[in-house]
Amino acid sequence: MNLFDVYPINDITIVKAKGSYVWDEKGEQYLDLYGGHAVISIGHTHPHWVKRIEEQLEKIAFYSNSIRIPLQQQLAEKLGKVSGKTDYQLFLCNSGAEANENALKLASFHNGRKKIIAFTKSFHGRTSLAVSATDNKNYIAPVNESDNIIFLPFNDEDALEECFGKHGKEISSVIIEGIQGVGGINVAEESFLKKIRSLCDKYGSVYIADSVQCGYGRTGKFFSHDFGGVNADIYSMAKGMGNGFPVAGIIVAPHIKSKHFQLGTTFGGNHLACAAALAVLEIIEEEKLMGNAVMIGKYLKDELNAIPELKNVRGRGLMIGFDTPDELKDLKKNLLWEQKIFTGEAKPNVIRLLPSLGLKKRDAEQFIESLKEEISKVHSAESQTLNAKTV
Ligand SMILES: Cc1ncc(COP(=O)(O)O)c(C=O)c1O
Asked: Mean per-residue pLDDT for 111-139?
């Protein structure tokens, strides 16, 4: 049997990982500023995370949600403490798409409405509703096409106000990433998040904060939406939550009440997933990783801003993006193959940095040095071609 070929891949086999580094089967070391797509929050194979999972594995890995699983309550309490949302309610599932699917569905159960507002360049996942609310036609199968989704321009307060003015009482929810990831690192403005809050309050709609990529401390606040200074009704989370162990969830504001059987899952909240998620929160707290994300993020942004070839450096904490001009179109590839550094991208010309929140200053410095070296190589190649032409 062959694999179903859904992604173009880099011809690299990673066999070992530690902190912000990974190694291939030939022993070649790479600096990982991509974190397997923003998943590695506390660093690869963090010893506390490994120990927590191993110890749990010896006891019990899984039982269904038909029995008490005290680890879930422990996780809820810890998550409440670290995120500051102590009075929210936790529902656990397995992936980011599933978290958003449940958030959108719960909003609709709550207010009995069908319409969803989503934004240009949004990405919310591949399942039915989540993909319908994703602004990329290539991902939407005919069966996912829906008249219930209204796409509005990102950060456009007037368009939002006008839409609520027309359809307010039909709007079930508004879903927004605090910083769009797949869309190219676009930061939601604080006033825009405030506007969403006030319109949702006015019309009885649910504000859903998709924190799958931008959450879990990556920006220096636990949820990047907190920069808006208002609370969302539901936050979805995944990626960094398990540091690579598949675990996801939503937290739900107290005024939204649960009803038996509306939401459910077989694997969500299993013992092993809870142990992994607890280990992540313990390390985020103990190693003050949100503070580190702010500090290293600032260093990186300052340095990137000082490189004239790179345009529009943006983002928060350790979720950073910048545009590369045409002559640097191979920069990401060259960083990987020449400098052994993994970075992320967003089409057509954005490089995305999504490293572990524990990224060390010396690794950030190494990245900046390597980046400058690759840029200067392009310039010397350009001047050689020019010289050859004039000769
Ligand atoms: C903002 C956002 N939401 C949802 C998802 C979907 O998460 P998953 O791939 O775990 O289903 C992603 C994945 O990249 C994402 O970036």
From this structure: 97
What distance in angstroms lies between residue 124's CA and the mean position of ligand 1's atoms?
A: 6
Taking the mean position of all CA atoms in its chain, how far away is CA 261?
Answer: 28
Nearest atom in ligand 1 to the alpha carbon of residue 177 is 1
Give alpha helix (H) positions in 60-189: 70-83, 96-111, 128-132, 157-167
Distance of alpha carbon 83 from alpha carbon 182, whole angstroms: 24
pTM above 0.90, yes or no: yes
Give the span between the Cα atoms of 34 and 335, in whole angstroms. Answer: 12
Gap between the Cα atoms of 333 and 235, Å rounded: 34
- Nearest-angstrom CA–CA distance, 245 and 269: 12
Amino acid (one-letter) located at 324: T
From 34, 95, 123, mutation site for ligand 1 pocket: most ligand atoms within 8 A of C-beta: 123
- Measured from the CA of 238, which atom of ligand 1 is nearest? 10
What letter represents residue 385's amino acid? T
Tokens of 5: 């070929």
If DSSP codes are grouped into helix, strand and coil, which group holds residue 208? strand
From 179, 212, 218, mutation site for ligand 1 pocket: most ligand atoms within 8 A of C-beta: 212
Section 203-224 average pLDDT: 98
Tell me how far apart the terminal alpha carbons of the chain are, to the nearest angstrom: 57
CA 190 to chain CA centroid, Å, is 18
